[in-house]
Specification:
The protein has 307 residues and is mainly α. The chain folds into 3 domains: 44 residues, no CATH class; 137 residues, no CATH class; 55 residues, no CATH class. The protein has 14 helices and 5 strands. The protein has a 3-stranded mixed β-sheet. A two-stranded antiparallel sheet has the order 1-2.
């Protein structure tokens, strides 16, 4: 199974490394001790984890504690996502394939929507309004990122410093990177692991982009539809009780702790959308997990294939 270490590194927020001045202040014996401890710790973990799990543990997305940080203030302001909604209707098909060539022609409309996010009354919004806006902002930013660097065959063709860590997206007067939107503004502030089926990183194995914008009034319905779609298509989920194992998208591997906090395990969470898996677990049988390959080719209409 192919392991994409660069992807795992890119999908997480990177803590600042120590400066050389700070390093020089550490006694040599202290540095060597820390190195030995780190090696021993990694070796200990490696003894119990497959290599790819080890890579995910040390280089994957940061672990967060899922908490609800906002109340659903129904009297708070709403936000108009109609411009983005129209673009999605026009340039995304029913299975999430994107017409980037057509969208490029009307990039000014996408720019207008992104600019409007900068003056969104984010702080005053209720819980669902915030989450819908943050998901749309992430997805719109990703589309813009692809258009800015065309022609490319994958989002990974974009230089690392210009990709997920580029601090360029103005949301309610806050300048954030895509990683900050996901790992700082969404995951630790909403008890909602279904966002992993809604945030789209422009790759074949990412969840499909919807043909409509997320809205507060339909957020629950839209997240459920996204999750159900993912678990009824072989790109992300495969399970036959008579032919173990369960094959899951690597989203469950990289963000396994998010799903575990809510359901007890990734399998238990996936079973919410698979009656067969649910019954198998209820019968006391826990299938072995295999991880489906994660393909990073662009989710463009030119790459369209069965899901």
């Amino acid at each position: 199974m192919e392991i994409d270490i660069q992807t795992l590194q890119d999908s997480s927020n990177k803590a600042p490394v120590s400066t050389s001045l700070q390093a020089n202040k550490t006694p040599k014996i202290g540095r060597w001790t820390l190195l030995v401890v780190a090696i021993v710790a990694m070796a200990t973990v490696a003894a119990f984890l497959p290599f790819e799990d080890l890579i995910a543990k040390f280089f994957g997305p940061p672990r967060v504690e899922l908490k609800e940080a906002y109340t659903d203030n129904v009297t708070g302001p709403s936000f108009d996502h109609s411009t983005f909604d129209t673009l999605l209707h026009r340039y995304v098909d029913a299975d999430g394939w994107v017409d980037y060539v057509g969208l490029k022609v009307n990039v000014s409309e996408l720019d207008m929507y992104l600019k409007s996010l900068g003056v969104a009354p984010l702080d005053a919004m209720g819980r669902d309004e915030k989450l819908a806006l943050l998901i749309n902002a992430y997805n719109a930013g990703t589309l813009k990122l692809i258009l800015d660097h065309q022609p490319i065959s994958s989002i990974q063709d974009i230089p690392e410093q210009e990709r997920w860590d580029a601090v360029r997206w103005n949301i309610g007067g806050n300048l954030w990177s895509l990683n900050q939107i996901e790992h700082e503004q969404i995951r630790p502030k909403f008890v909602e692991p279904r966002i992993h089926f809604a945030l789209v990183c422009a790759a074949l194995s990412c969840p499909p982009l919807r043909t409509e914008a997320f809205t507060a009034t339909r957020l629950e319905e839209q997240l459920q539809e996204q999750s159900q779609y993912v678990h009824t298509h072989a790109t992300w989920f495969q399970f036959d009780r008579d032919a173990s194992p369960a094959s899951l998208t690597k989203l469950y591997r990289w963000y396994g702790d998010d799903f575990t906090q809510i359901a007890g395990s990734p399998l238990e969470f996936a079973s919410r959308y698979s009656p067969t898996l649910k019954q198998t677990l209820a019968d006391g049988v826990t299938p072995r997990i295999e991880w489906l390959p994660y393909e990073w080719d662009l989710n463009s209409i030119q790459n369209k294939r069965p899901r």
